[in-house]
């Protein structure tokens, strides 16, 4: 369920937005929902100009599909960012602001641990580099819902491609499968099945 026709998400839909900027954060691999929200607010506070000051921004087209999220300059149609959907780990709407968080891609090595940029933190846990993009749009909530729905549709397509009918799965089997799929990390549960949020 979501605001879009699933077919449209497979082709891709476009929202108009203003791009305010990006910042980088270090994060645990699977932080709780509350921590994610704090990270989103931290990104906004770093990027958003204080009340009364002019906010530098670029008009963009936000392209959302079951494959990727792309940000195009609205005037030149040049691609400013292009994230495969599976690298997106969190999306938040805060009023008319949308925060999109993606894991930084690192050169793949043989060891699975090194696939993403990571640094050990003081308590020995690995910290992952997240890039946070901040946008402003009247449709902030709709954009966040559409990205969540793109995950659901992508996952159902993925199941069908593997010969599984998503309707045949019980809620538990669906989340178990989500947990075991490498291609779709644990974060996906946050989007497609909100009642399963792991706090």
Automatic annotation (TrEMBL):
InterPro entries in the record: APP-Binding, PH-like_dom_sf, PTB/PI_dom
PROSITE patterns per UniProt: PID (PS01179)
Name of this chain's protein: PID domain-containing protein
MF (Gene Ontology): amyloid-beta binding
UniProt xrefs under SUPFAM superfamilies: PH domain-like (SSF50729)
Residue ranges annotated for the PID domain, each copy included: 11-186
GO cellular component: cytoplasm; dendritic spine; plasma membrane
Keyword Repeat recorded: yes
Database matches in Gene3D superfamilies: Pleckstrin-homology domain (PH domain)/Phosphotyrosine-binding domain (PTB) (2.30.29.30)
UniProt cross-references to Pfam families, sorted A to Z: PID
UniProt xrefs under PANTHER family: AMYLOID-BETA A4 PRECURSOR PROTEIN-BINDING FAMILY A MEMBER 1, SYNTENIN RELATED
Keywords annotated in UniProt: Repeat, Transport
GO BP: any one term: chemical synaptic transmission
Organism name: Bambusicola thoracicus (Chinese bamboo-partridge)
